Amino acid sequence: MNPATATRPPAVAGMFYPGDPASLRDDLLTCLTAVACPRSGSPGTQGGAAPSFHSGLLKAIIVPHAGYIYSGGTAGHAYALLAPLAARIRRVVLLGPCHRVSVRGLAAPSATAFATPLGSIALDRAALDALADLPQVVVSDAAHAEEHSLEVQLPFLQTVLGEFELVPLAVGDASAEEVAAVLDRLWGGPETLIVISSDLSHFHSYREAQSIDNATVAHILALDPLTSFDQACGALPINGLLAVGRRRGLRIERVAQCNSGDTAGDKGRVVGYASFALFEPEAESDTLGPALLVRARNAIAARLKQPTQAEPDHPALSQPGATFVTLMQDGQLRGCIGSLEAHRALDDDVRANAVAAAFSDPRFPPLTLAELPHTRVEVSLLSAPQPMKFSSEADALRQLRPHVDGVILIAGQRRSTFLPQVWEQLPEPRLFMAHLKQKAGLPADWWSSEVELQRYEVQKWKEATIR
């Protein structure tokens, strides 16, 4: 392989996931919007205690790597968390176990890009070259040529993040500290995401697998190292991440869990799957929220010819982004205007929406100078809207995730949206949908087979106190 021009082609397209781009996009949409496995009363299925995801910077995920019909929904639950972060994640460090080639240490490729049916992903060659002095890192194209544990993650990443650079490493025989040293070297800041690829137990009966996997999940949630490949085929990269997590004070939550007996396999010999999200402490969390809040307030203050504050910089501000700016007074709405799709730089979008919320919301008179000190600014950063698939209104209501989904309703020329925050006032899906229809100028009990629904998630920040 000539490293100056080499692109690693897809090796398992058409096997682990569709090789046709249109079919692949359909499967990814299904995975990213998957409904959790039915609750059986067992902690071994998806569901269980709902993750909170309230604070800290989402820094790493652990996701399974079987065929999409088996584990795609479990992985999709974790990847859906990344969609609101696409503006800030510019590099992905991806580690998975070697399945076909024996390697001592961690194998880096010599390629300059990895390809999938959705296109090519550029590798961060500078980052890979900077690992050359670590004795546990070797160059092995053979380790990557047919390895599925890394490849199956790439279409998910392309879909939720768009453009990014990739640092792929296939993990062979390596200690937790050797893996941790590589992760520390590549850790970076908010622009870098860590992805660990691993399934759980293999080829036990359904109930036996549940018992083994529940114990494994408990170890991972406690940041305790795994001791056996029977617990997880990616035990070595998982242990490296857990070692870094203990040192850096990361918080971990289970996102989803099931096995192949819950999805597309029989219950005689199953493979276990789980996904996790790891968060850096609040003190190290993203500074994007404060940067957006001060820009929103400054835009309003400048329109009222008032002094403005110093504005902290952030690399995401120059990237396209979609925001909503909400103004509150004494717990009551005073204005809310936003963008549903990213069509301009995030810096420009939040300023424009702040001014519009203050002075152009048709439901309220323009904000006055006297009101400004008593007005609290809130900013929501939206992920890219994803279309929902449903057969009826009842089916759509079953798929909605209260307090997670923002929803866009499209009916001919009519269009309306509710941010996820609206669930606080309308916590029941049927009520939420009825009010969303009314906002579009439709009767609460109206429905049509032509209705389109899209959903999105948000990161949201609000000023702590009214100034």
Secondary structure elements and pairings:
Layout: E1 7-8, H1 21-32, E2 57-63, H2 68-80, E3 91-97, E4 106-108, E5 113-116, E6 119-122, H3 125-129, E7 137-139, H4 141-145, H5 148-151, H6 154-161, E8 165-171, H7 176-186, E9 192-197, E10 202-204, H8 206-221, H9 235-248, E11 251-259, E12 270-280, H10 288-303, E13 322-329, E14 332-338, H11 346-359, E15 376-382, E16 386-387, H12 393-399, E17 406-411, E18 414-418, H13 429-439, E19 452-456, E20 458-462
Parallel strand pairs: 1-5, 2-9, 3-8, 3-9, 4-7
Antiparallel strand pairs: 2-12, 4-8, 5-6, 10-12, 11-12, 13-14, 13-15, 15-20, 16-19, 17-18, 17-19
Helix pairs in contact: 1-2, 7-9, 10-11
Describe this structure in words.
- 29% of the residues lie in helices and 24% in strands.
- With 467 residues, it is α+β, with helices and mostly antiparallel strands.
- The chain folds into three domains: 39-283, LigB-like (Protocatechuate 4,5-dioxygenase, Chain B); 288-382, Hypothetical protein ph0010, domain 1 (Glycoprotein, Type 4 Pilin, 2-Layer Sandwich), CATH 3.30.700; 386-458, Dna Ligase, domain 1 (2-Layer Sandwich), CATH 3.30.1490.150.
- The strands form four sheets. Strands 2, 3, 4, 7, 8, 9, 10, 11 and 12 form a nine-stranded mixed sheet that branches.
- The radius of gyration is 23 Å and the shape is globular.
Quick structural summary:
The strands form four sheets. Strands 2, 3, 4, 7, 8, 9, 10, 11 and 12 form a nine-stranded mixed β-sheet that branches. The protein has a four-stranded antiparallel β-sheet with strand order 14-13-15-20. The protein has three domains: 39-283, Protocatechuate 4,5-dioxygenase, Chain B, CATH 3.40.830.10; 288-382, Glycoprotein, Type 4 Pilin (2-Layer Sandwich); 386-458, Dna Ligase, domain 1 (2-Layer Sandwich), CATH 3.30.1490.150. It has helices at 21-32, 68-80, 125-129, 141-145, 148-151, 154-161, 176-186, 206-221, 235-248, 288-303, 346-359, 393-399, 429-439, and strands at residues 7-8, 57-63, 91-97, 106-108, 113-116, 119-122, 137-139, 165-171, 192-197, 202-204, 251-259, 270-280, 322-329, 332-338, 376-382, 386-387, 406-411, 414-418, 452-456, 458-462.
